[in-house]
């Protein structure tokens, strides 16, 4: 999940570098389909990284409970 989240964040960056279609330019130029795809990938990447962070936090708290027993 960590790898997927990181790659999800890099997809719009690679798109901007390779084609020049940075998400702010696509919005300004009215290319809403490209903008939507980039925003979806950014959201997927952010959500995945937040889930990883939460799962790691829960794992630490669960280990603390087990070790206190």
SSE order, one letter for each helix or strand: HHH
State the helical fraction.
Answer: over 70%
Q: Tally the helices.
A: 3
**Secondary structure tally: strands:** 0
Q: Main β-sheet, in a few words? A: none
From the alpha carbons, calculate the radius of gyration and give it in angstroms. Answer: 17 Å
Oligomeric status of the shown chains?
single chain
What distance lies between the first and last C-alpha atoms, to the nearest angstrom?
31 Å
The fraction of residues in strands falls at: under 5%
What's the average pLDDT? 89
Shape: elongated
Give the uncertain stretches in residue-range form.
Answer: none
The structure class reads: mainly alpha
Plain-language structure description:
The protein contains 3 helices and no strands. With 69 residues, the chain is mostly helical. The mean pLDDT is 89. The relative contact order is 0.18. Helix 1 runs antiparallel to helix 3.
Summarize the helices and strands and which ones pair or pack.
Elements: H1 2-19, H2 23-28, H3 32-68
Helix pairs in contact: 1-3
List keywords for this structure.
single chain, 69 residues, mainly alpha, 88% helix
Summarize the structure.
By secondary structure, this protein is mainly alpha-helical. It contains 3 helices and no strands. The model has no long low-confidence stretch (mean pLDDT 89).
């Amino acid at each position: 999940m960590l790898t997927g989240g990181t790659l999800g964040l890099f997809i719009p960056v690679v798109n901007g570098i390779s084609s020049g279609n940075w998400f702010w330019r696509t919005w300004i130029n009215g290319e809403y389909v490209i903008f939507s795809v980039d925003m979806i990938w950014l959201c997927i990447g952010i959500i995945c990284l937040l889930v990883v962070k939460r799962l790691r936090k829960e794992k630490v708290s669960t280990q603390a409970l087990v070790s206190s027993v």
